[in-house]
Amino acid sequence: MEVRVGCAMWTHPAWPGRGLRAYADHCNAVEGNTTFYATPSASTVASWAGQTPPDFRFLLKLPKQVTHERRLHDVAVPVRTFLDAVEPLGERVHALWVQLPASFGPTELNALGAFLRRMPRSPGTAVEVRHPAFFEDPRWAARLAEVLGSVGAEQVLFDTSVLFAAPPTSAMEEEAWQRKPRLPRRSHALTANPVVRYIGRDDDAETVAGWGYWVDTVVGWLREGRSPTVFVHTPDNAHALTLARRFHEEVRARVPEVEPLPEPQPTEPPTLF
Question: Could you name the domain of life of the organism this protein comes from (predicted)?
């Protein structure tokens, strides 16, 4: 049994070490948000592969040109360019992440279905929608699940319920309130590899107290034979790395068969004193 955990980035001033290699000593997955802004060069992708073990996984966001600017229409060339660019990662690509704008609604589901049918089945595809209709109207929620299920795609589950449970208490939380979607929490799994993006608070205790729902859900998925991936966010992300490991520990305490995370390597040479 395996649970993958990670964060929204692989480097942060508050984290031990610097860069992807140090991050991969702590977590076994990461969100590839940088690829939303530009397709990486071959040398950059090769360096990512060189800094991570073979069982490390990336959830790579498709470029905004594909999802936001062209809204999945006439995108064969940029998608092919992207797939070629990330090919050196091989099986490290957990899924291609199709994050759609909040304005992408039910009337565009046919375009989504046509796009997904043209995507390769390996690696898998994970789709994140933010239009309220997919969360508030059971008909459109069911239709979305039908479209994704027909091609073996997963829905990225984005949970901001803890973030919005109380007014912000810091500048970073205020910014998160402005930027993050306020949508009902969903916890259905369409494939063997569900993906959760959990957004907590800058107070670690509030973040931990709020993720009990997901610990229960992940344990249930494991017992069904699924292999979930959970990304832990907080508004400032200062403690996200250690929180992701703590989430994994809580799941493993209930399901001891889960593979352990890597043991972090020391960031400084040991001393005698």
Answer: Bacteria
